[in-house]
Amino acid sequence: MANITQKHRAHILAVPYPSQGHICPMLQFCRRLVSKGVKASLAITNHISTTLNPEPDDHVSLVTISDGYDDGGFSGADSVAAYLANLEVAGSQSLGILIEERVGTSDTITCVVYDAFLPWGLNVAKKYGLLGAPFFTQACGVNYVYYLIYHGKFTMPVSSPPVDIQGLPTLDVGDLPSFVGSPESYPAYLELVLNQYTNLGDTDFVLVNTVYELEDEVVDVMSKECPLLTIGPTIPSFYVDNRIPHDKEYGLSLYPIDPTPITNWLSTKPSKSVVYVSFGSMACLTKAQVGELAWGLQQSKYHFLWVVRASEEGKLPKGFVDEKGLIVRWSPQLEVLSSEAIGCFFTHCGWNSTLEALVMGVPIIGMPQWTDQPMDAKFVEDVWKVGVRVKVNDEGLVGKEEIVRCLNEVMEERRGEFIENGKKWKHLMKIAISKGGSSDRNIDEFITKIVRS
Ligand code: UDP
Fold first, then answer.
1. What is the 450 CA–ligand 1 centroid distance (Å)?
2. Going by CA atoms, what residue is nearest to atom 17 of ligand 1?
3. CATH classification of 11-251+433-452 is 3.40.50.2000, yes or no?
4. Can you give the residue ranges of every domain in the chain?
5. Does the pTM exceed 0.90?
6. Any residues with Cβ below 6 Å from ligand 1, and which?
7. Thinking of the domain 260-428, which architecture would CATH place it in?
8. What is the 370 CA–ligand 1 centroid distance (Å)?
9. Which of 145-150's residues contact partners 24+ apart within 8 Å by CB, and which partners?
10. How confident is the model at residue 398 (pLDDT cuts 50, 70, 90)?
């Protein structure tokens, strides 16, 4: 390991893609670096900064760059493609200014850790002679599928039969990232995920927010083609190794809430009696699907805590009420998942939500919507065996009967099996980030290299 003085000279600037599921893991990674003596700053957009006016972080300095939409952020853009194009132009320019302003000061940046969705971060880093490392926020298996497509080793669209990729379980079309089965569905996002590999060969390191033990086979296979450092889980230390003081919350929520009514409600519920339902920060369900979910939850015997974001509220059946349940616009998810009252997590299988459930040992019902979520759900059901994935009917819906069936299976019939398997992954994830574990060693290796370069 590098000595303290060397470490103090290193200053990492982390640049996440400006969404909830990307900011939090990078912020946590920065906290981890700071806990090991390295200076770290996190760049959020001017829009996020002015809307949230975040409290200063105890560990990491917050700085700002522009995404080209300082007033409206993402919703100010006409299209995803327009947002991404302006983010690149305005982001590169403002990132460059931020780096330049600090040259020769005690804040001099030495390494840019940029979201793999923003490969232009490397061009900016190299322009100023700095080290650059992409940070992949999705599972390694997902990254590997995109990597193979980018290098022409795997062709889209995939229709049938099931696909065999070294390091991964046999995958049906519906298990692959959604953009692979239907490349025409979101062309701008497909381009975004494939562009992650444009300059990978020029980077100094490749950081992946996963845990080696969760995806060992595919990490081994991909590492032969491009050396990876698995550094996860990037979840507040309190819930994993508890080595970083005052690190219990992500701290930068794009959806501010008062957690008290939720935690008070949970505290009145018996142990393992509540189903926590959330589809993350982006997924939009159809009105019909929200209806099926509502009736399914109502028909089930279980209490439920359901996050329905303000933008989704209009899809709830008119006048829907159920005294077994609490519907909220956003939740303190880590606190919720760690609550004794929670019996299972009905989730879209976003990568952060999946890691959080695994860390807390909470059984999962996966209802993936798009992007990387189907593959995460496949691992949940068939690799880690900590839950089930819902079945979609011929109309493309998950019907209320199927919802009730899955709830019974996970809350009762196969509960013991999922809890037992979950204990193993929870333990392995804790070991990975604890002193001397696989992620801890990789973080140390990263630090050693940046301070010596
Ligand atoms: N989250 C939260 N409260 C909620 C819903 C989600 O704090 O009510 C957090 C969750 O803990 C996770 C993130 O938002 O860290 C969502 O990331 P994920 O990758 O699961 O999904 P995305 O929002 O990117 O689709």
1. 31
2. 21
3. yes
4. 11-251+433-452, 260-428
5. yes
6. 20-21, 24, 278, 280-283, 307, 330-331, 333, 350-353, 356
7. 3-Layer(aba) Sandwich (3.40)
8. 15
9. 145/176, 145/177, 145/180, 145/375, 146/177, 146/193, 146/194, 146/196, 146/197, 147/197, 147/222, 147/225, 147/226, 149/180, 149/194, 150/194, 150/196, 150/197
10. very high
